[in-house]
Design a protein that fits this description.
Elements (H helix, E strand, L loop, with lengths): L4 H28 L10 H55 L6 H22 L20 E4 L2 E4 L7 E5 L2 E4 L4 H4 L3 E2 L5 E5 L8 E2 L3 E2 L10 E5 L4 E5 L5 E6 L5 E4 L2 E6 L7 E6 L2 E2 L1 H13 L5 H61 L3 H25 L9
Antiparallel strand pairs: 1-2, 3-4, 5-15, 6-14, 7-13, 8-13, 9-10, 9-14, 10-11, 12-13
Helix pairs in contact: 1-7, 2-3, 2-6, 3-5, 5-6
């Protein structure tokens, strides 16, 4: 077989170009630190790398969502905690106002501080986050959720809760609507509310009471109506007499599973009602008490009416504190759960990074050794070409 001079040249040049190409590829690997420069370098590894990169991006998004969620929950937890402090101060003022040593003037001063605390409470309920969004407005986060109107206090938000995805199969609410935090508090003792009728003429004062027999408690409205200073009847919601008894100031009155006590001297015709607790907003509770303390009382009957109003407010504030503490605990539980999910996401991110490193990162020791070999092969090819190109007969003619 005859080998022409042009073929020898072509083979030598092709060999040098191949060596230069391999050397250039190795140089690029060394400069980038990446083993896979194109999918053709490792098709299976390239596909796996793409899958892991997508998983890493998703995990990073989960972690960003977790940071945002943690910030929102910490702010909400702080605001609810501050609201609890305000309501506790309101309760202290309520106990202070319930003292018989207080005069109309001193109760007016207490009412003034109550209104200041009410303003603080309303400011907390209208708190904004760092982005200027109201945290208790639900989906209507662009407008203040609470406002005072001629008819009382209104909630302008909705019941929506924005859910943020913090894991492949885990979503969590970033807050609570204000309707659930400040507007849905059970009044009275949480089961029923004891109140005195507006037309009472005696000095009877009823306490908040409690449920003494859960099985007998039917959530029906009943009334205690006095026939005289020493006798009373128990009436159902329809006005029918279902029981009667002898009155003893401070003694327990048992009815329909409920237990209450009345102190003082009720007059004939005086009536006290035990009705199922209803949802009420916290602001109206404080407003009603402030109005009661601002109203002058001139005689024992009017002072007894005020004591009944204060007792009702006091039991409602106790329920409000319990309600807010439950909300604070719920937020804290979410924050703890979020921290566990954050730890899971951090571990997953680290594992993905390690797997990506195994697939993509270059083994520098192997690459440097290969680079040296390819460099030597290129030099040998160049030297061989230099020798062979001088073998033509034309050089000797």
């Amino acid at each position: 077989m005859r080998i022409s001079t042009s073929q020898m040249y072509t083979n030598s040049v092709t060999s040098m170009l191949n060596q230069q190409s391999k050397l250039a590829a190795t140089q690029q690997q060394l400069s980038t630190g990446k083993r896979i420069l194109t999918p053709s370098d490792d098709p299976v590894g390239a596909v796996r790398s793409l899958e892991l990169s997508r998983a890493q991006e998703q995990t990073e998004q989960y972690m960003r969502n977790s940071e945002l969620l943690d910030s929102r929950l910490r702010l909400e937890e702080s605001v609810v905690g501050s609201s609890i402090d305000v309501v506790q101060r309101i309760r202290e003022l309520t106990v202070q106002a319930n003292n018989d040593s207080q005069s109309n003037e001193s109760r007016l001063s207490i009412a003034s501080e109550l209104r200041q605390q009410l303003d603080n409470l309303l400011a907390y309920a209208n708190t904004k986050d760092s982005s200027g969004h109201f945290i208790f407005a639900g989906y209507q986060e662009g407008s203040a959720p609470f406002s005072k109107t001629a008819n009382g206090y209104s909630y302008n938000g909705d019941d929506g809760q924005r859910q943020l995805q913090i894991g492949p199969s885990r979503r969590m609410a970033d807050g609570d609507p204000g309707s659930d935090v400040y507007m849905s508090i059970l009044n009275g003792n949480g089961q029923f509310i004891a109140s005195a009728a507006d037309g009472n003429t005696g000095t009877g004062i009823i306490n908040a009471g409690s449920v003494a027999n859960v099985q007998a408690f039917s959530h029906d409205t009943v009334s205690v109506r006095f026939n005289s200073e020493t006798q009373y009847d128990i009436l159902d919601s329809g006005g029918a007499v279902i029981d009667s008894g002898d009155y003893l100031s401070g003694g327990d009155i048992q009815v329909a599973g409920m237990s209450v006590s009345i102190k003082g001297t009720p007059a004939a015709g005086d009536e006290f009602t035990l009705a199922p607790s209803k949802r009420q907003d916290l602001f109206s509770m404080v407003e009603a008490l402030a109005l009661s303390l601002e109203t002058p009382r001139k005689n024992p009957t009017e002072r007894a009416d005020q004591h009944n109003e204060i007792n009702t407010a006091l039991s409602s504030f106790d329920r409000a504190i319990d309600h807010l503490i439950q909300k604070q605990s719920s937020i804290g539980a979410r924050m703890e759960s979020l921290q566990r999910q954050t730890d899971i996401n951090s571990g997953a991110s680290l594992q993905i990074s390690e797997n990506l490193s195994l697939i993509n990162d270059l083994d520098y020791a192997e690459a440097i050794s290969r680079f040296s070999q390819q460099q030597a092969a290129l030099q040998a090819a160049q030297q061989a070409f230099a020798k062979t190109q001088g073998l033509s007969l034309f050089n000797y003619i």
